[in-house]
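Sequence in, structure out. Go.
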Amino acid sequence: MPKFIITTGTPGSGKSTILKQISDVKIVSLADEMLSVAQKGSNGLTDRDKLRSLSDEEIVKIRAAALRHINSMRDNSIIDTHASVKKGTRYVPGLTMDGLGSLNRVEAIIYIDATADEIINRRKKDKTRVREEESKGEIEEQRIVNISLISAFAFSLSIPIYIVDNKEGKVDFAVAEVKRIAKEVFGK
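Output:
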């Protein structure tokens, strides 16, 4: 039975950049899986950043189908996702306790972290994504919400949280740390 590591981080923390450099473990993007489900339905979405525009009910259904697909996979995998998604002035869970419970063996959570200033600078440079411009205070708020959510998940599932600090210009160190954690968790 495969084991899973959930990996989250505030948008702009460098999570996707780090995970693209992990080649010895399967990486599964929950957003990409959700987009695939949405494209098969009547939504007609072609951009994963547009998933936020769907109703909460649509997101719950699409996420559940995507998680069922992920759970059917046979490989140990790192699941790339968000702890929360900001919609206007509110936060909605990127994952839920039910969603995590639908996965057979979540063994750990990795939170990719960076300072608010680093996140602001990375977002400005990233022309591949559509992101709102947010203040340092708003990003700090997101970090607090995300860490609070993953703490609740870890407590409920009785699994560890690993926080990987992705300092500007030090991505190699963050990649090495994620690889070390995966080896520790998966036993490879």
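Check: The longest strand covers residues 106-113. The first helix runs from residue 15 to 20.
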